[in-house]
C-alpha cells in the first residue's frame, strides 16, 4: 500500500509540473522541452510501474528477484527526489530571465518579416539525392523476405556479422534522410498558409518516412522528422495546448505499439517463427504485452541500477570509468581514425552493462537497456548523481524553452529548430548521459538538422516582401489583430 501511495504522489507532482512551463497568452503550449521530459518520465518510469503494482501484484517483470516493498520504495524515493530536482531547477531558470517591460512588448510580433522558401534547386537536390540513396539500398538488399526480416534488430545485426549485409549501408541510409528532412521543411513552410496547402507534402512525407522505416528498421531515425510538421502546425497554424496532451500520449503509444509489433511479428511471419504472448505478466493480452515490454522497463532497470550498482559499475571498470565511457569517450566518435589510429572501435555505456546484468553474459556492444538519466546517473554517482543529472536536464530544458518561446516571429525555421531542441532534450533524458546524447545526435539527427540549417539559411527577410503569399501572418497564437 505504501509503494502505491508514493507512486500516486509522484504522479500528482508530475501532472502539476506541466503547469510550470512557458505561457503563450493565457494558454500553455504542449510542445516544450520541459513537457517532453515529463512525458518521457511518465512513460519510462511510472506507466509500467502502475501496472506492475496493481495488475501484477507488485512483481517487477525484469527484476523479479528484487520485487519486495523495501526495494520498490527505495527506487520510488529516487524517482521522487529526481523529479523534484528537475521541476525546481526548470521553474527557477524559466522564471529568472528578463521579464518584458509591458504586456505589449511581450506579445507584439515583428510586423514586417517575411520568410522566403528555400531555393527550388536546393530542395530538389536534397530530395533527389536522398531518394536515390534509398533506391540504391533497396536494390542492394532486394525486395525479398530479407527486407522484412531486417525489421528485427537481432536479425539485422546477425546479417551484418555474417557478412550478408554491408555495415556501410547504415551510413548511406542516414545520409538518405536528407530527402525526409527536405520534405518536412516543405511541409512546415506550407503549413504557414493552410493545412490544405500542405496536404500533398504531408502525403509525400508519410510515404517517404514509411520507406525510411523499412530501410533503416529503426523508429528512432524518423521520430524527429515526423514530429517537425506537428510542431510547425502548433506554432504556425493552431496552437496545441496541454488539452491535447492525452491525445498526443495516445498517438505516441499507439504508434509505438504498431511499430513494435511490426518489428516483432512481421519478421516472425517471414521466417515461420512463433511469438508467444501468453507467458509472463501479459497473459495473452497484446496491450499488456506491449506495456510489459522492455520499452517501458525503465523502473525495473532503475531498481537493478540501485540494487546492483557496484556490480554494474565494476563491469565497466568502476564508477569513475563508467562515467568516462558514458559521458566523455563518445565525443571521440567524430575524430577521424587517420588522425587517431587507436580511437575506440566500440562504444559502451551503462545500458550495455545493464543488459548483461539482466540477461547474463559479458558487456558487449549492441542492445542496451535504458534506465534513463535517473538510473544511469545513480550507477555513476549514487543518489546525488541522479539528482544532479535531472537538475542539469531541467536547466537545459528551461533555457531552450525560455529562448525559443520568446522569439517574436514564428517561422518554419523556428519550428524546425524547436523540434531539434525537443528531441535532443528527450534523448538526454532517455540516453542518460551527455556523451551518448551527442553520439545519438551524430548518428540519427545530424543529417536532418544540417539539411534544415542549409535550407533555412537566409530565408528570413526584413521589410523585403516580394509577394503577399510569403508574408508571415501577423496574428500570432492569440496575440490579437494587427
Quickly count the domains.
1
Shape: globular
Task: Enumerate the strands of the largest sheet in spatial order, edge to edge or round the barrel.
Answer: 1-2
Q: Unreliable runs, pLDDT <50, ≥5 residues?
A: 100-109, 463-482
Characterization of this structure:
This protein is mainly α. The chain has one domain (1-316, 370-432, 444-482). It has 20 helices and two strands. It has a two-stranded antiparallel sheet. 38% of the residues are buried.
Write the layout of secondary structure elements.
Elements: H1 2-17, H2 33-54, H3 69-96, H4 103-107, E1 113-115, H5 120-141, H6 145-149, H7 153-161, H8 169-175, H9 177-190, H10 195-216, H11 223-236, H12 245-271, H13 286-291, H14 298-307, H15 309-315, H16 319-328, H17 350-359, H18 372-404, H19 412-431, H20 434-456, E2 460-462
Antiparallel strand pairs: 1-2
Keywords:
single chain; 482 residues; mainly alpha; two-stranded antiparallel ribbon; 20 helices; 2 strands; 64% helix; disordered C terminus
Question: What's the quick description here?
Answer:
This protein is mostly helical and 482 residues long. The protein is 64% helix and 1% strand.
